[in-house]
Amino acid sequence: MTTLIYFALIILVPLWAQFKVKRAYAKYSKVAASSHMPGAEVARKILDSNGLYHVGVEETRGHLTDHYDPRVKTVRLSSENYHGHSVAAAAIAAHEVGHAIQDDQNYAFLRFRHALVPVANLGSNLSWILIMVGIFAQISGLLLLGIVFMAAAVVFQVVTLPVEFNASNRAMDQVVSMGIIRNDEERETKRVLDAAALTYVAAAAVAVLELVRLVLIYTGMARSED
């Protein structure tokens, strides 16, 4: 029964977080921002006000595919946010610019996350192979190695949290101080940003829980081998 509850949680928690994001975005993408600025203009205005004239703003395909690419110094906004005049579009555009500002200012957690990318990718791809072989073959050494690789991916997800929260805080500061949103729009903007951050919190929580579960499995296996 406990196992069923556990697996229900690690499946339902991310789904719940995604639902919150989609609901918040659907709601506030229909609320026009008082500035009537499209997301692309919001991003460009904040970038320029911070001296980041070299950072580009591009439209990208997909739904909520917005991101900042540090390799080419470009903020990419999905079509609906690139052209949209909504509170949601302004919030998301400002959030991605927050990452560009972090990059320019050498924000420590962002640098740490970038450094973890190769290790996290290797851990994500290799860990489950080692874990599954270790569990089914009852080889605790392989399981432990898989756990170590998985831990690297978990650390990446945990480090992502301060990066995302800091970008959202920067976004709020920018849109308020520059008059992109009015005082009565601050709560709506924050709800969009908080909902987006919730997906990262859920992902990190699930990853940590799964890591703990595997550590407990390893501990039990190691004891049985003694």
Automatic annotation (TrEMBL):
InterPro entries, alphabetized: Zn_peptidase_2
UniProt entry tagged with the keyword Membrane: yes
UniProt keyword annotations, A-Z: Membrane, Transmembrane, Transmembrane helix
Transmembrane parts of this sequence: 115-135, 142-163, 197-218
The keyword Transferase is assigned to this record: no
Protein name: Zinc metallopeptidase
Source organism (scientific name): Robertmurraya beringensis
Lineage: Bacteria, Bacillati, Bacillota, Bacilli, Bacillales
